[in-house]
Structure prediction request, 170 residues.
Amino acid sequence: MNAKSPSESVAILTDLVLPSETNPLNNLFGGELLARMDRAASIAAGRHSRRIVVTASVNHVAFNKAIPIGSVVTVEAKVSRAFTSSMEVFIDVWVEDRQSGDKTKANEAIYTFVAVNETGTPVAVPPIKPETTLEKQRFDAALRRKQLSLVLAGKMKPDDATELKALFVR
Prediction:
């Protein structure tokens, strides 16, 4: 399979925060934001793999800034690294200032998706070829996150985690 650029997988969802989606403080429910991020990430993973994709894990979510009612929210998802059948998707969440139009980063997340066939069996996905500095940083960090996850799950020995050796110095 030919490598693909992360930019080929970009999915951008822009929407308004409505009253029914807010908590008693009139800020977007965290669960609503998680669902929006999951949808954008699913589209990005599907664009990269051109297969059915399923959410395997939510690896990291940072709710750094409350998103008030009436806000215009943009969720941008992009595949940061592809492994055999799984893909790490990095998600940035932006809030647009109503008057200036300036966008501020409010939140971010990292999800993992797996490409599957019609019977739910994992299938191979194309590799990623990062191009920008940020894409390269996220690509490299994705391997460290995957290896750490495998070590913590007991599926990889720390000595075999080449990207993590510094964390396990004796």
Observations:
- The first strand starts at residue 11 and ends at 16.
- Residues 35 and 41 are 10 Å apart (CA to CA).
- The first helix runs from residue 30 to 49.
- The chain has one domain: 6-129.
